[in-house]
Amino acid sequence: MNRRLIGIVLAVALAGVGTFLLVNYVRSAEDRALAGEETVSVYVLDDRVASGESADVLANRVRIEEIPVKVRTEGSVASLTDLTGRVAAVDLLPGEQLTADRFIYPAELETFGSVEVPEGMLEVSISLSPQRAMGGQLIPGQLVAVVASFPPFTIADTLDENAEPAESGSFAFTAESPDPSSTDTTTETATATTPNSTHLVVHKALVTSVKVEQLPQVPDSEAAAGVELAPTGNLFITLAADAPDIEKIIFASEFGLVWLAHETETAPEDATLIQTRLTIYL
Questions:
Q1: What are the pLDDT digits (tens) for 143-170?
Q2: 234 and 136 in contact (C-beta within 8 Å)?
Q3: Model confidence, pTM
Q4: What does CATH list as the number for 38-114?
Q5: Which residues pair with 198 in a beta bridge?
Q6: What is the largest CA-CA distance in the chain?
Q7: Could you count the other beta carbons within 10 Å of the beta carbon of residue 111?
Q8: Distance between CA 159 and CA 171 in Å, rounded?
Q9: Per-residue pLDDT tens for 33-74?
Q10: Start-end of CATH 3.90.1210.10 domains in the chain
Q11: Distance CA 245, CA 260 (A)
């Protein structure tokens, strides 16, 4: 009986020592990873904060974390007192760095959450990763430019040899196939592949809503070992624009990749080109 009791005590002691060594190993691994890097302290959310909640709740829902300066989010909060009297403008989820532009004063909350859509405009929602939507810093009421990127795709149609190329290295195609009985030799059937391309296709779309998907959660076993997941939840961005621009946004989202860029009301809308490898080095 005494041997069994001694064995249990030893097993518990060994488990405690193993846990202690594992935690210290993880901490030392983090220290080694940050060695030589300039670091900064930031606040990271441990728990969800709902839109409209007071910044006073943050004291029990954040932790201070040392991260490399290069990955600090612009506008990160240096002190919780900087947010005194403010409320969350949108839902904030675990894993997010705390930034001042996600908080507003209560008097602003009503207008923040109810952006009026100008008459004659349509709305559409698209799902984007944070890096394609200004790192998740978008708020309703902002204006954005919509930039579309497309991979190469094959065009099989009728090549009009007399048409001027639309872009450097590209071809102009007619909508109809040639008549086999015709003696007209100005057209021929052609198959071509477009280059990769990027272009600003919509100016000054109005952001009317921003929602964040639920972020993945770390299993308890991994959380105990210090494992964390990056904030990878997509953003659901609702944009208001006129009908032709809505068509462009949907097409780009369906067949290409979309990036959003903050655009002021006075930003110029000319002097942009379709960018390909033929133009990017100019």
A1: 999 999 999 888 764 445 444 444 433 4
A2: no
A3: 0.49
A4: 3.90.1210.10
A5: 149, 275
A6: 107
A7: 12
A8: 7
A9: 555 578 888 899 998 888 778 888 898 899 988 888 877 888
A10: 38-114
A11: 14
